[in-house]
Write a structure and sequence with these properties.
Number of strands: 7
Shape: elongated
Helix content: 25-40%
Mean pLDDT: 87
Strand content: 15-25%
Order of helices and strands: EHHEHEEHEHEEHH
Number of domains: 2
CATH architecture of the largest domain: 3-Layer(aba) Sandwich
Distance between the termini: 42 Å
CATH superfamily of the largest domain: SPOUT methyltransferase, trefoil knot domain
Strand order of the largest sheet: 3-2-5
Radius of gyration: 22 Å
CATH class of the largest domain: Alpha Beta
CATH topology of the largest domain: Alpha/beta knot
Low-confidence stretches: none
Oligomer: single chain
Number of helices: 7
Largest sheet: 3 strands, parallel
Structural class: alpha/beta
Length: about 160
């Protein structure tokens, strides 16, 4: 089943208005042949996005191709795979883009890539026992030696 164009075009018109208002909106169309969303693209979208963002999500076999053409929507994909609908790609898009909008995360240091940190993180207890085997936090992290901890973070960053 392919979703018909009329209901989608009517919904977009209702959401952002007609012609002049629509030009003020950023419209994205999730498609398997779209440009793959990555962190660089998400950051660019967050900085260049207009006031209104419209995400067109298909379901079943997708959305009639004329919708993207009529709306001059930018086709994007979240990966080289197919999902049952566009709801999850829309959620991924929103999360990826909103992280770069000022004040969304509270502080800029919260951006994973901008932190001088390792992808490896630990919590208490210092020694965790699972099915009879001990898993320990690296000793350097317990040392209190900040320079050595920073060195470890940089070396184990992946």
């Amino acid at each position: 089943m392919v979703l018909r164009p009329e209901p989608i075009l009517k919904a977009v018109n209702k959401a952002v208005g007609r012609s002049a208002s629509r030009r003020k909106a950023s419209i994205f169309f999730f498609s398997t042949d779209g440009i793959q969303l990555d962190e660089v693209m998400a950051q660019k979208i967050s900085k260049s996005a207009k006031k209104d963002i419209v995400l067109i999500c298909g379901h079943y076999e997708g959305v009639d191709e004329r919708v993207a053409s009529i709306l001059k929507a930018k086709k994007i994909s979240i990966g080289p795979y197919v999902l049952t609908g566009g709801e999850l790609p829309a959620a991924v898009f929103i999360d990826a883009v909103s992280r770069f909008v000022p004040d969304v995360l509270g502080k800029a240091e919260s951006l994973e890539r901008s932190r001088v940190s390792s992808s490896k993180v630990y919590t208490r207890p210092e020694t965790f026992i699972w099915q009879g085997k001990k898993y320990k936090v690296p000793k350097v992290l317990l040392s209190g030696h900040h320079a050595e901890i920073e060195k470890w973070k940089k070396e184990s960053k992946s």
